[in-house]
Amino acid sequence: MSRMVQFVGGARGEWRVVQQRSLAGAALPAVERVALLRGDTPRPDGGAWSLRGIGSYDRYLHTTERTALRARQAALGRPQASCAALIPIRKRAQWWQLTQEERREIIEPRSGHVRIGLEYLPQVARELLHCHDLGEQEPFDFLTWFEFAPEHESAFDRLLQALRATPEWDYVERDVELRLRRERSA
Amino acid sequence: MSRMVQFVGGARGEWRVVQQRSLAGAALPAVERVALLRGDTPRPDGGAWSLRGIGSYDRYLHTTERTALRARQAALGRPQASCAALIPIRKRAQWWQLTQEERREIIEPRSGHVRIGLEYLPQVARELLHCHDLGEQEPFDFLTWFEFAPEHESAFDRLLQALRATPEWDYVERDVELRLRRERSA
């Protein structure tokens, strides 16, 4: 699997946008569909916007946490997981000035980011993509992609609500949410 | 200061190459000079190679360590610091599969990376640039740039030797070294 992933918002793509909103900071232009492209390719023609992120190494997981996550997590692309969400976020400059141990302290002991995520496995599959170090002009720091079956949508709503209520989220200055359905275009 | 830095090896640039060698893995084509360009600009014409990296946030420092480093570190660009070294390295895939706590254990308690660096401050100024998450095709994971005065060159030699003798360096699969002198081209 390629480390680089590009989400192109426009009139094309397998994922139809059913809801698009901004919870903090500037919105993204509204689009009908999102195409998910894997690989380090140039931005395709057309599309209102394109967001790129790269899969990277674990920054905060302790070894026991990673073992627990891996034991429960689901793969992307499950046929029944026809619902998806794309959550691009940007964190405040202050976040990036914290030390590793300060960020870890916020993410897990204080916010329970890992514990919250574990509760929704394997129903919700997740891929975290990093943008902060792709370049200086990136509009977001992280893109998180989630896939789940329609019957788990309300569980996913609770997951998002729980994450947004954490102390970690005090550092989020831009928070955009797209909800999508897998649906081939005509 | 721009987060993105580009080193262009060729016939131009303020830094004249006095020695260039590969300690592990493939060498870089030999060049006469290196130009250091700040900012997210396209690769300029000419030049045998171009290496890009981005300044990022601290991954491993504990808060007390960062305070100690900041209290002693020197700025880049000191007039007397006419010697420089560029050390591009690539770490094994195995390194990136470790968890954060496993990598930290290797870097500091076992390798003393921070303690070694502290011994050579403020004589040796240092800038660490990250390449691993710039894209999938990057030839190196890190570029480290050092600046020091000619009278501190032997201290710098000892610093490099000490770092290369650490357990952390067992994970380095490509290690290139360029020694340079600041010298305007004719």
How many angstroms does the end-to-end distance of chain A come to?
27 Å
Radius of gyration of chain A: 16 Å
Q: What structural class is derived from the secondary structure elements of chain A?
A: alpha+beta
**H/E series of chain A:** EEEEHEHHHEEHE
Average pLDDT score of chain A: 95
Strand order of the largest sheet of chain A: 4-1-3-2-8-5-7-6
Largest interface comes to: A-B, 30 and 30 residues
User: Which percent bin holds the helix content of chain A?
Assistant: 10-25%
- Uncertain runs of chain A: none
Multimeric status of the protein? homodimer
Give a short account of the largest sheet of chain A: 8 strands, antiparallel
Number of strands of chain A: 8
Number of helices of chain A: 5
Bulk shape of chain A = globular
Sheet-strand content of chain A, in percent, reads 25-35%
